[in-house]
């Protein structure tokens, strides 16, 4: 950070040209109805204006001006947080031009000034979301909202900035979306787009369709009892309640006519007649289909697996119950997976004891390699987590129906009041076996670069798919990351609308344990060497996975 002498600067909020033009089409401030063709049929829609995206000059009291810097204070490629009195903006200079956008990532509020600026985009330092500095639009995930964009003017060697107070305070912008124009005409048992699954992939698909002007019916269905929520939080912040981790509030779905059927399970899909058959016998016709069912956790197959207080963490209720049962009690976690390790880290301070049982000799060996795995294991051991490696569970013993002990194949008996199972998952695609959709030997739905399955009009996204990964010569891979599920949903939506968009994003994941975060970019499957720079013992390092 440089010391900046007080010089007059103004920043003003502007709407991307494309969106401003839409606003100016109608004298009443609402956009005129536009026409969008769906399957050859012309349909009208209205753009729904979000408060943040509306004209900032309608209310002069909402506008703030502040001094920021002289044009020579920023070199090309530099970013700086600037304070406008009632909020901050991120000022950027690239290729001789100044840009100003929101300074916080809308995903979880990371300071973007600590991120990476490259080729007209700024990337979040925490979870890798990426934003266009010219428009503020989100271009890589996770997260759903874009950044507010502020106008920058240069006069007499000074940078002038003017901003809406509301945009400075919210630090996010929801893109304009269409609404459904013919809900009253709907046959309840038919929809234009049916989305099976309400995780990140399903929600981003629905939002992208609306952002692109799609104005017909969209129905999402989920086995869950909740509206879409931030599933990675279940193992990282286990006492979160559903409303705290909701991806969108209930009103959002009403506003943009995205229907969500909760506690509804699809039992079969009739591809020929374009009908989804639900477990309760209800049938729904569709025109376009997205399958985004994710995966199903594997259960233990040992003796006593039915006893009470043994959990797979699938819902907020599961996570909350585990925290309650584990407080000041003995916890056994089976599987040093990401879920298992994150749960162990979260419960270490709360439980009386945390024991972790794993078949491999070190955690994350296949993913991070032995050296990184050992360094992580050491950090856990210094936080009172006890490991039992290269063994499995042979029996769960109960007392009065509730878990009492976990018996290992090594003969060791562990006291246990609660057990969390994190031994991997399988794709939730069993209901598609007779459908005619191409599924590989592991149960993953095979898609092309446009997220289309072997059946025209049927798309798939998220943890249940195998897709061609550009950076590995289009090898078909399964990448069950939160960021990738978002991107899959976006690509699927664009191709439902015949945009011809191919996926090319780099996989990215993060995990956080004991205040340390591990961030992983790329796809290192099949590495034969790990090159480490930095200090592994201090957990301040970069590891390169090579082949």
UniProtKB/TrEMBL annotation:
Name of the protein:
Apoptosis-inducing factor 3
Annotated keywords: 2Fe-2S, FAD, Flavoprotein, Iron, Iron-sulfur, Metal-binding, Oxidoreductase
Rieske domain: which residues? 66-161
GO BP annotations listed? execution phase of apoptosis
- Give one GO term, molecular function aspect: oxidoreductase activity, acting on NAD(P)H
* Superkingdom of the organism of origin: Eukaryota
PANTHER family named among the record's database cross-references? APOPTOSIS-INDUCING FACTOR 1 (PTHR43557), APOPTOSIS-INDUCING FACTOR 3 (PTHR43557:SF8)
Please state which protein family the record places this protein in: Belongs to the FAD-dependent oxidoreductase family.
Which GO terms of the cellular component aspect does the record hold?
mitochondrion
